[in-house]
Amino acid sequence: MPLSASEFEAVRLSILVASTAVAASLPFGIALGWLLARKKFWGKSILETVLSLPLVVPPVVTGYLLLLTFGRNGWLGSWLERWFGLQFVFDWKGAALASAIIAFPLMVRAIRLAFANVDPRLERASRTLGAGWLDTFVTVTLPLARPGLIAGCVLAFARSVGEFGATIMIAGNIPGETRTIPLYIYNLLESPGGIAQSYRLVIVSIVIAAAALMAGEALERRGHAGV
């Protein structure tokens, strides 16, 4: 059976939220992945621990902290709303923020490993030929690390599509606004006969995750072929 209008809206929201989460967190993932792979500094282990916390802390706790920080009375949320008109509570942007935070450690780990596997001698050769640090990073380091960057984005996207606990804390479960696939399935399971109705979205979520993984594999193979 085809998806209903409300189910299709949940799928659309899930893809929008996951794509926004990946796009917004990728620059920070690249910066932190490179920093952790290439630099030694005081507090590195502390930074690694903080970055990994969303993997082990219950998502509801992460959502609670996000609510305190980005809520209308939060120290950062009130400032963002006052100066930029950005609101995260009960808004799809809050769902994207929660997904980005939860999936960020997976992205950083993949990108960090990719940068660690880039041969520094190739970068030094580029510098000796007259390229600046930024030119070397853009034309040598990033292309060589591309498979890891793709893997990090795919993992973050798939994790974002399935995010539930932190999302419901900061964004709620509003039909057409913040009700993504996991929230829709949860809502169905709370209603009579919901188990029988939820199978379509369960299948769709599996298809989306599988398609993301297959696309990541294809892009990674193309990346290896182009190197």
Topology diagram in text:
Elements: H1 5-38, H2 44-56, H3 59-70, H4 77-84, H5 92-116, H6 120-128, H7 133-161, H8 165-170, H9 181-189, H10 194-197, H11 199-226
Helix pairs in contact: 1-5, 1-7, 2-5, 3-5, 5-7, 6-7, 7-11
Walkthrough of the structure:
It is a single chain. The protein is globular and about 70 Å long. The chain is 78% helix and 0% strand. The chain has 227 residues and is mainly α. The model has no long low-confidence stretch (mean pLDDT 89). Helix 1 (5-38) packs parallel to helix 5, helix 1 (5-38) runs antiparallel to helix 7 and helix 3 (59-70) crosses helix 5 (92-116).
Mean pLDDT: 89
Number of strands: 0
Order of helices and strands: HHHHHHHHHHH
| Main beta-sheet annotation | none
Rg estimate, integer Å: 20 Å
Number of helices: 11
Q: Which spans have pLDDT < 50 for at least 5 consecutive residues?
A: none
Roughly how much helix do the residues carry, as a percent range?
over 70%
What structural category characterises the helix and strand content?
A: mainly alpha
Question: What spatial form do the alpha-carbon principal axes imply?
Answer: globular
Ends apart, CA distance between termini: 44 Å
Tell me the fraction of residues in β-strands, as a range.
Answer: under 5%
